[in-house]
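I have been asked to look over a protein record a colleague put together. Alongside the sequence sits a line of tokens, each denoting a local backbone shape. I have pasted the whole thing underneath without changing anything:
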Amino acid sequence: MKKIDRKILLNPGPATTTLSVKEAMLVEDICPREKDFGKVLDTIKEDLVKVVHGEGSHICALFAASGTGGLEAAITSAVPKGKKLLVVDNGAYGSRMVKLAETFGIDVVRYQIPYGDYPDVAVIKNLIGSNSEISHLAVVHHETTTGMLNPVQEICDVAHAANIEVIVDCMSSYAGIPIDIKKWNAEYLVSSSNKCIQGMPGMVFVIFKESLLEKIKETKRSFYFDIYSQYTGFEKTGQMQFTPPVQVAYALRQAIDEYFTEGEQGRWKRYLGNYETLYTGLSELGFKFLLSDEQQSKILLAIKEPSHPNYNFDAMHDYLYERGFTIYPGKGAKEATFRLSILGDLHKEDITSFLKCLKGYLESNKIFG
């Protein structure tokens, strides 16, 4: 087999994966309508719920799509016609949910603040109080625009006090940051196969309360992304309605196994160690950060771009990329930033090697020196 070079991806997904996850895709060809493959998907669905401790209350619908497809499924399936969706918009991914809902004619109440500002739960409570037609609230758990961890528990509590259901975008926090969906009491959680679960891109999943299944039966806006049809169809036939990415599913199965081997706390401890190494190293090099420490997700850092005349993000990116490290540009935060994430199969020595390489770039260009 061709030798695969290991790349250190510091972008917020798709992530660096283990060799064993890659190798899991090298399987014999199988028709996705066969019972054997259906059994694989069934175990994936069950275990994805277990990751967030939702057994007994929540179930899972799988789709072949990027993460945005899962959000489309949740929003278009959940919000009844004639009702409104309140969106917490403090980053590009909150803004994306607004655009998504508006595309399907869903009325949106938008709590919009600058990318990098922290949501005020009191303002959210007031918006709920002044808009009786709100039936659902959508919020991003980890907003990768800035690296901010939004106060999902407090937001869920305020929403539920007003009988409003909650959709949580956990795209880049699921299987990284410990989540207890029963404690949140969240109605919907959306994530994908290629972030902290450390699989390959191509599958998305919506974890939702089983008690909502009949409620969403008639809320149909999408043919492909209809949660009710997708879930009940699989339960009846053991097959996804539309062709799934077979090899990606096998990689996800392997990634889930590796998650449970490492354990929830083991993965979080590794991620925290990576974050602390990166944070300390960047600080010592002279970088400053967009967010205060208490608002950091510890999954991603938004780093203020240096004002030095020799600094150029594209040049820095290319220098590092040629040496096996991928970094990520900013995305409209209130100050100019670039971003580094520690999710995926990364370890302390990977972060240390990156910092050494970054120091070489800074020294050769006399930045901070």
Notes: The chain has a mean pLDDT of 96.
